[in-house]
Write a structure and sequence with these properties.
The protein contains no helices and six strands. The chain has 80 residues and is an all-beta fold. The chain has a single domain, classed as OB fold (Dihydrolipoamide Acetyltransferase, E2P) (Beta Barrel). The chain is globular and about 30 Å long.
Length: 80
């Protein structure tokens, strides 16, 4: 069962790693911890296969059976 954490509060962080072939990566949160994301968590309006480390994002956090996961990801600033 998935449960949203901090309802109504968007978190911010930066993409530190993304595997384009597998479609997943990690975001570094402000506390230095890393959170997993899958490309399907990026809003359709924001999605591009060109996801680069260093891109700044807003996101929500889901508590899943596999641990915390970023969802509803929106880009603040894309890395070059």
């Amino acid at each position: 069962m998935k449960k949203k954490i901090k309802e109504g509060i968007m978190n911010s962080g930066k993409v530190i790693w993304y595997n384009e072939l597998e479609g997943y990566g990690f975001i570094e949160q402000h506390d230095g911890k890393q959170i997993y994301f899958h490309y399907t968590a990026i809003s359709k309006e924001e999605f591009t296969k060109n996801i680069k480390a260093g891109s700044k994002v807003y996101y929500d956090i889901l508590d899943t059976s596999r641990g915390l996961e970023a969802t509803n990801i929106k880009f603040i600033e894309r890395a070059a």
